[in-house]
Amino acid sequence: MIATIVKKEILGHIISFRFIVTLALLLVVVPVTTFILTNDYLKKIDDTSLRQAETETYLRSFGHFNRIGSILQATPAPIPFHSLVRGLTPDINLGQFDNDPLPVMFPLIDLVFIVTIVMSLVALIFAYDAVSGEKEDGTLKLTLANGLARPKVILAKVTGGGLTLLVPFVLSLVIGLLVILVHPGVDWKGADWLALALITLGTALYVMFFYGLGVFISSRHHSSSASIMTSLLVWVLLVLVVPSLSPYIASFLSPTPSRIQVDREVGRLSDTERDDLGRKLQAERLRDLIAKYPVLAERMSEADKKRLMERDPVAREAFEAERKATQGAWDEANRVQGGKIEDIRKAASLKEEAQTRLSRLISMASPLSVFTYLATDLSSTGLRNEEHFGRISGVWDQAFGAYQRRKIADLQAKDPATDWWNTPVDMSDRPRFVYSEEALGGRIEAALPGFLLLLGYGLVFFALAYVSFLKYDVR
Amino acid sequence: MTWTIARKEILSNLLSYKFYVVILLAAVLAATSFFVMTRDYKERLADYGLIRPKPGEPIAVNPPNPLSIFAKGLDEAMARSFEVETIGVTVRAGQKSGNAIFAFFPTPDFLYVVRVVLSLVALLFGFDQVSREKEGGTLRLMLANQTSRSAVLLGKWAGNFLSLAVPFTLVTTLGIAVLGLDRDVGFSGNQVLRLALILVLTLVYIAFFLSLGILISTLTRRASSSVVILLFIWVLLVFILPNLGTLVARQMVDVPSVRALSEKREQVWTREILLRIKGQGDMPSHIKTISAENDALEADYRVKFDRLVNLSKNINRISPVASFVYAATEIAGTGIGEEGAFKSEVVRYKNAVLGKMLASPDLESSEYPAFLYRYRPLGRVLAAGALFDTAWLAAFGVLFFALSYLAFVRYDVR
Fold first, then answer.
1. Mean pLDDT of residues grouped by 10 in chain B (414 residues)?
2. Chain B, window 163-222: residues with a beta carbon less than 8 angstroms from a chain A beta carbon
3. Most CB atoms closer than 10 Å: which of A69, A240, B30, B327?
4. DSSP-derived 3-state class of residue B84
5. CB pair distance less than 8 Å for B278 and A422
6. Sign of torsion over alpha carbons B294, B295, B298, B301
7. Does some domain include residue A389?
8. Would the pTM count as exceeding 0.95?
9. Residues in chain B within 8 Å Cβ distance of A94
10. Is residue B414 in some structural domain?
11. Which residue range is the domain that position A136 belongs to?
12. Is residue B342 part of a domain?
């Protein structure tokens, strides 16, 4: 019997006007978005290789270790998944002089956007009259008069409606994927396809949640015009309001020091305060030395010093000791201030992490955020990827540091007096930063709670719909 | 007669459940948005207090704009600090950068509430104007009384517009008044004028969606199909078209990525400094080269970026929602045009400071000019496109109303 009602639901939806409009809308929007994003991705690849070529050219003429840190920096690379999901984009770039304000004004569209905004609304449009509409038409009475159990009816309604909803989505996605397959420049690997399959599964859960919610609202109302009104209100809150407000609420509950403030403090610690400390330490240490070597108290020019050192071994020892003490004092000052700076930075970043975690947690009251995190993490374009990028760029930093030390040691072995800081070096054998996505296993593990949460949300609303329907007055 | 019908509409709205729920939702959202964005503004103001340059420091910082509470736009980008050094400009951004969740979801400013929620509310007021009365049978009765169809339609439009606009204006004005009392915020006369303009623009925006709702209502027989069609149009206008348009424009105009630009800047100054260490040329000439190359990069980017912006604006204007966003942000002084003007002001300031640095033998001075950014006057903002966008929005509203008149005249009321 369930099969019959499911079939009836599916057929009823498929010939409906809203189904045709949804199908048409998705069939246009998804392939167009995929096409444009694919081109965008190919452009980004060109841009990346151009940038790399320019860096190589630069290094051939100006490869010095001085300031190399600002030239050689690990940058995230475009990944094939960008032809479907944009995720967190680096374009806004507020930390640099050059920034791109357009995405701030209009967030760019991608698959996640289509699913979260369009599909959730479509699900509610499909579901709002599932119960109240049938009651208005009088068909609900007739159905139940046939000795059908209510649990069967509601189960069949949710399954049938949810399945019908996925048809236009999957169909448009398949056409979108043809774009990706046809493009010679885009090379999707097995892991990408698997991730996409999982994202589609997440989409199914997300859509089912909204369908269940719609049926629940529908079975709380006796007229379909009232149920669409309530559905829209709930949709506005869940989809538009909760996610946007969550970071603001979190920043209210768990404030962080502003980055500008931290930068200022760090600047003070590493500049004026370090100098004060260095001078103080230097004076202290030299005072002891002067007691031991009176010659140090005399003011003389560098040339005089050199001459004196050649003549007098004691003076030589004294100047050596002075040099060492000065160096030691400044090293100590740098160490102390460096420690303070690290503490400040660490405290600030701990607070930032706490705030990010809290924002994430609050936002997950909305299934939109849950799905967004799940999809961006699976496609390695989200928060988890930022952490992953931080890790692999840290590894590269260390490798390059080791390379730099080895090169400098080579230079010094050749000529101890060399100014290795400013000598041109052939860096063509340097370790290069190669961005690689995190293995799929880790991404799936990260997305798993999201799946469970979506499933849980869906089940809750299905249960509510079930209970409401059991008590529904069908007359 | 029109007025009688308008009154009837207002009264029936006042008695309906929909009216209270919707108005309450809009009011709560607007209030929440004011609260949240005011806090955000104050935090940025506190940041500004920290980094405000002391007299003589070569730093360009623009205080956050109080109107960003209503339309945040690019204010975050404009309130960064630009420290001028011989080798270029060091940029520092505020605290948002620490929490990536901000980047995931749109900013809940007043503009967002209006753009998304209020448009939906206006549609909900319009969607069943004709079809509901037809279903209820009252339309027949009304027209049997020799009321002209134009009077009915106009009365319906006016009644619903007023029942939306009046509570909305009240709530917003109240919010603005409360903000005005806040000592940290303090709007200037000019800013109040700008706010008033934004409010007018918002009313035009509401009128546009109301007309659209009535148009679809006159084209459909049943309220339920009218609401489905309207929701699809709404998603298309508010979300899909403006966001897709920017991407489409990007396909047609080649703009270097911001990362490529930043890398080039790094290369320029490190190259010049190394050449200097090697003993080629004197420092001032290297500084001049760095500055000139950076300016050339910026100028080149600006030209391409302006082309991109113009194209994407024109594509986006297919959806009048984009026009609304452009006009509102430009009037608030947080739009793309204002940001461009601000950036060129920063470049000019940098060159003035560099001139001062180069004039002294040790490349340092203790007295640099202070940076002061003057927002473009309202007249110029309006002339530069805000007026056009407003007119464009209004024209669509009028067009839809005219179309709904045409459809209503032929409407079968039986």
1. 86 85 86 91 87 85 92 89 85 72 87 92 87 82 84 91 91 89 85 94 95 92 85 92 87 85 87 82 85 89 90 90 94 92 92 87 80 92 92 95 92 81
2. none
3. B327
4. strand
5. yes
6. negative
7. no
8. no
9. 76-77, 80, 91, 93, 96-97
10. no
11. 2-252+434-470
12. yes
